[in-house]
């Protein structure tokens, strides 16, 4: 299936694909605000369906572009959130230059949410181009998902052994070395070779990817969500049927807890449009049209509310 759009080469080897949308070709190029969408582990251009639906629904002054990173597809196994944030900074800078004075909003899906967290509050955040707002859709804990999705004792033991081997390699000063393929349940399930560093980052408590675990203490969350500040309004979206969140998790309470630390730090959270999307799975592929429509409506509501807030601030 062909998809109309524009490929923006934002760095030497990376592009962002801007969807054509319902209002493609209308208005001047520099008069558009941009929603940059960042996928999760294994995602690439057009691998998730709902950004295309968002594109068809955006008002004429907005465009959505999917960001291709070097960690896209299978590249995540040898990459890091810091590298993603560096490349995102190039992409944000590109669109700021292309459309000066216009808004750039980031929307992350799954590990794309970790990328946004790293961009806004991680090391070097103050040196990156400013964004206008952020949407975190399906921000989940890889560490916790691996724990409860491997019910058999031998599977848990295999996963623990993979982490132990990664930690051994890190201690030996070999973060870039691949964790051996033999009996590597993580590589078997995800289909990508994984470095010692990224294995630890995903599976260890306190690893660099560990932003969304339910067992993180208050002080840890103050150092992450608490650092958003009022200049980057935020919205959380989490599917009620997301299989990567433990069934016993109170999703409403979880999002409320995160939002509480954002607000405690002086930040702004859209809790009118944000929240738990009823009937939604992780990336909404295959979900009923009305469920996808609910997500799209929430995104549009956030963008509209964000615009109104900016206008009121003058």
From TrEMBL:
It comes from the Eukaryota. SUPFAM superfamilies: alpha/beta-Hydrolases. InterPro entries: AB_hydrolase_fold, SidJ. Pfam families: DUF1749. Gene3D superfamilies: alpha/beta hydrolase (3.40.50.1820). This is AB hydrolase-1 domain-containing protein. It comes from Epicoccum nigrum (Soil fungus).
